[in-house]
Amino acid sequence: MPDHDRLAEQFERHRPHMRAVAYRMLGSHAESEDAVQETWIRLSRSDADEVANLAGWLTTVIGRICLNILRSRAARPEDPVGVHLPDVVVGQEPSNGPEDEALLSDSVSLALLIVLDTLAPAERVSFVLHDMFHLPFDEIAAVVGKTPAAARKLASRGRRRVQEEREADSGGDFATRRTLVNAFFAAARNGDLDGLVAVLDPDVELRADGGPALAAATASIRGARPVAGRASLFRQGGVAVFPVLVNGAPGALVTRDGAPTSVMGFSVRGGRITRIQILLDPERVGAVDFAAFTA
After folding, report:
1. What angle do CA 179, 110, 122 make, to 5 degrees?
2. Domains (ranges, CATH) in the chain?
3. Which residue among 83, 198, 273, 295 is least enclosed by CB atoms within 10 Å?
């Protein structure tokens, strides 16, 4: 087998790992694919025979690429209302059981990705590489251009922010989460304001991202009654809700007159919904293969 073909074959074996690293750092499917492709270009132009640990080399390189993307992103103006949701991962919902718990523990929640978006680029890269992929700090230091001690501090700052989110989304097992989500939609369809308030945390936050095409729909709303009032749209004709996994947790896919309109994720704590994330951006919602979930 020619050396180039052998190298490409080895790279493909590591592609899922690199995509996972990039998605956790960037929260964007398109940018993650770009980062993976750029990693391949750098590998193909390097002296691969000098690479003793290909997996480590690839992780380091894609980490640097993602850091550059994050820094470029940070230099761009923010959305006027400050609401941006990461790209979602939508999957079929399995039956309740031990496998659901494994799926939840292995997934990166939408709420966690939102918190990662608030970290400085070097903090995010250091935290993701160390806490999610167990890279040692001396290797992380080479990625972020800091000393190992400085990389450790960066990861620690990121960890504190992430821990706050985990406390806000500590709602127990899969069945509990799905029961609460189902109760939310049942109350919304029935116009039961008190029933909605009952399943919502008093300080619940709803974040909706309409993207450039639906900027008017982009909003951040806090409080059980204001959020419950927003749920009245589910009483409109032609609206259908399908249970799906959103980044590994019970969520919903919403259509109107058969056309996809949104994907919704939920955070849960203490038997109530603490956060609702709604992706309304037509371009990104349209990239989801809805036929697989509505057939």
Report:
1. 155
2. 3-76+110-168 (1.20.140.160), 174-294 (3.10.450.50)
3. 295
